[in-house]
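Our collaborator T.R. sent over the components below with a one-line note: 'Predict the complex.' Nothing else. No constraints on interfaces, no templates requested, no preferences about which chain binds where. So this is a plain run: every listed entity goes in together, and whatever single assembly comes back becomes the starting point for the next discussion.
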Amino acid sequence: MIELKDLTKRFAQHTAVDALSFSVQPGEVLGFLGPNGAGKSTTMKMLTGFLAPTSGTASIFGCDIQTQRLQAQRQIGYLPEGAPCYGDMTVRGFLEFIAEVRGYRGAQKKQRVQRAVEQVELEQVLEQSIETLSKGFKRRVGLAQAILHDPRVLILDEPTDGLDPNQKHQVRELIQGLAQDKIVIISTHILEEVTAVCTRAVIIASGRLVADGTPLELESRSKYHQAVTLLSDEPLDDLALAALPGVAGVEVNQAAHSFTVLAQPGRVIFPQINALIGQRGWSVKELDVERGRLDEVFRNLTRGEAL
Amino acid sequence: MSQLPVIFKRELGSYFATPLAYVFILIFLVLSGVFTFYLGGFYERGQADLVPFFSFHTWLYLFLIPAIAMRLWAEERKSGSIELLMTLPITRFEAVTGKFLAAWVFAGIALLLTFPMVITVNYLGEPDNGAIVAGYFGSWLLAGAFLAIGSCMSALAKNQVIAFILAVSVCFLFIVSGLPMVLDAFAWAPQWLVDAVASLSFLIRFDSLSKGVIDLRDLLYFVTLIVAWLAATAVVIDLKKAA
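Returned assembly:
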């Protein structure tokens, strides 16, 4: 279990992380969200023992990150932002170095490196020096070093930043393959990633926690939760739609010939709309029920904080 | 303590992964030859010893050692790999000492490659080889002191060039503190202060070592200096990480 208690980091003038408290259980994949400069990386740097908190504590499975730093760090695999590596080393040389620092020797070392290389598919570049690799491969080298010792806690700072869609997909699959009994914390700007891999999302703004819940819970805070979008070539009677029970409002998009009917909080409006369509005999080309828009929730939660 | 050799091995390997090592060794060998034979008057002296060889090491190291030391930490900070290194389960001591020892051994390798000098002097006459060994040892200690200062300066600066200039400047102060021109400036001061300033000088400490006289106080001086600057390196790294 990871536990943060009033974790605070103050730099000369500004407070980067402000009394952050939450805990993460094994099996959880936590998406750590927030605008740039919200304190995501700073929090991760404190969790991994790189930066000392100004006040407050963080512990990894009972090991305090300051007083028992080495024990805590042994349980963590960490991919720092931008996946820095030793560029002049070969991939094999670098991973063997990490394995040795992690205490593996001889056959065990070989086996660990081998396994990590297979997991992130680095076989073809094993003997190349890291600085000659493409961004995607470099990121994978960073991931390989993080998972090499099969850590109980994996902390990944923007693991898919700058990757192409195929590579992003690969990284997500890798994370999903790992997750069962581990704690994974991922910081990201990409909200679809949260819905795709995370079991829980924590949103911070200006160093403070503003939301904490499953992606579904967060989506249900959106005004588009349970909203129904209709797409039609003919003009529809939006007043009739607005008059239906449980409807909070109708947004008309002239250009796309679409109507988005918003639901009142906690109401389901799809059956009523469906009935109305049948009754009036409208020809509707598309009909969508929305789960909610995470980006809208994100904006609402973080914009207020920034002002 | 157990991970120190791992850090050491990686660091030493990284010297030889780039042309830096070979360029450095070449320049060191050429310059030490030039200094010994031309400026030191190796032949003209008519003595079978390596005093002219060692006596220029202080000045040679002033520029060459900061060149090896400048990358120690500045490069880690610039590339961000310091975040990787410091989140691995190793102590500050292991990281700072492992890196320093790698640089020190590298300087030792360069120094040992001057062995043709020893062969030459043995061919020409009958030198005191004990004194020569002591001179080599003293020179290596001197290199260590320069490196420890360079390590701390490298931790201070993100930019390698700035690290180099800082290291040269601080090392220069440690050299000239024994020169008459500096000591004369302290003419107003009580004698103990003048002595204290003079005793800090590499020149005076190294002078006896280079002649093959190993004084425990000189050894202690260099060892203390190395330990102190490495401790300072560890402190600086912790302070600068946040920035």
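Summary for T.R.: The first strand of chain A starts at residue 2 and ends at 10.
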